[in-house]
Amino acid sequence: MNIPNVSLPELIATAIFAIAIIHTFTTKYFAHLAHVQPNHAGLWHLLSEVEVVFGFWAFGFVVALMLASGEGTAIAYLESRNFTEPMFVFVIMVIAASRPILKTVEAIVKKTAGLIPVAPPVAIFFLTLFLVPLLGSLITEPAAMTLAALILRDGFYKHGFSTRLKYATLGVLFVNVSIGGTLTNFAAPPVLMAAEAWQWSSLFMLSTFGWKAAFAVFVNTICLTWFFRGEIAAKGHLESKSEQASVPKFVTAVHLMFLLGVVVFSHHPAVFMGLFLFFLGYTEAYQRHQDRLMLREGFLVAFFLAGLVVLGGLQQWWLKPAISDVEPAAIFFLATALTAVTDNAALTYLASLIDGVSIEFKYAVMAGAVAGGGLTVIANAPNPAGLSILRSDFEDGTVSPLGLLLSALPPTCVAIFAFLVL
């Protein structure tokens, strides 16, 4: 592996990136400090927010870059970054979490659950982790993550799930969403970053990756549901605020049109942000049919992803050489491991810049990147959205990175089997 000369900004960015990763594994410690040091509880609570970590350290990097290379260099670097993905995730998360959209998805899940000859909570739990992640191939992974997390929170987590089941469910959710978006070429961030360069159509994705992903999603979900079926049946009860009042069909139709418009124009921030502003005005006009919009949660997730864009933009010096000279047989596992500490979209984007690689290499990079997308909160762009919705139901309002990693390993192994053996 030949590593090129490294610039000072790249060294600073990599050092701070490493610190940020370590910080994500210590957020529970900062939450503890908030309790034992009440005089500075606000600061410790801020540093215990996983969604704040990368934005916080990205700010530190910009300051360090200004001091090391000047204000002009720092500003030029920020302006060179593409923040479309953080903006899109924020918009899609807020719209997808609105009462009319959530009520529609819940109705679909409940109606389908009625066809399954098991206890209703068990059927709903199964469909939430199986059907909704696969819908991510149509409505995008961030929207699927948001909807699935809301159903799990309101129907299951809030009714006394054990810590063991909460972590197991979170691990399966993250893995299933990561691989569940591979049935098309536009819904999953890692696929989106490479599909155009590699000329992969939705038909190619479905025939090469999608059916294998669907198999893995099914196996992951059926195993989890069967193993915890007693607790799920006893404690599951889907009755969220979105059921408290009916929503007129025309209001739901308009919300679905906004959602569709944002998905269609996901590459054009000027368009989808304009649609979002119209959406905000519409929800204000029909406020009686709305719950509180998830603006705070959406902002935190966007802040997290924006920080990842800033810090991740200068990791090419080591990441690209790390994958460019590796044989396809080994690149799959390397991509899975690197995804856990970078971001699967960044990984596939860098791979798409390498010329003259074989189809086997491309397959291995993509399969490894999506298979490892549930191992950490930074591994896949939608993960922070799910975490922001579900973490309040964990002890101290924080999710242990090690607990997530261990919970995601079994479903990740199933995904690895599906992509390598089937």
Short précis:
By secondary structure, this protein is mainly alpha-helical. The chain has 22 helices and no strands. It is 74% helix and 0% strand.
Helices and strands, with pairings:
Elements: H1 8-24, H2 27-36, H3 41-48, H4 50-69, H5 71-80, H6 84-96, H7 99-113, H8 120-139, H9 141-155, H10 163-180, H11 189-198, H12 202-227, H13 229-235, H14 249-264, H15 269-285, H16 295-312, H17 316-324, H18 328-341, H19 344-352, H20 359-371, H21 383-390, H22 401-421
Task: Walk me through what this model shows.
With 422 residues, the protein is mainly α. It has 2 domains: 8-80, no CATH class; 84-421, no CATH class. It is 74% helix and 0% strand. It contains 22 helices and no strands. It has helices at 8-24, 27-36, 41-48, 50-69, 71-80, 84-96, 99-113, 120-139, 141-155, 163-180, 189-198, 202-227, 229-235, 249-264, 269-285, 295-312, 316-324, 328-341, 344-352, 359-371, 383-390, 401-421. α4 (50-69) packs across α5 (71-80), α8 runs parallel beside α10 and α10 packs across α22 (401-421). The longest helix has 26 residues, at 202-227. The radius of gyration is 21 Å and the shape is globular. The chain starts with 7 loop residues before the first helix and ends with a helix. The model has no long low-confidence stretch (mean pLDDT 89).
Structural features:
422 residues, mainly alpha, 74% helix, 0% strand
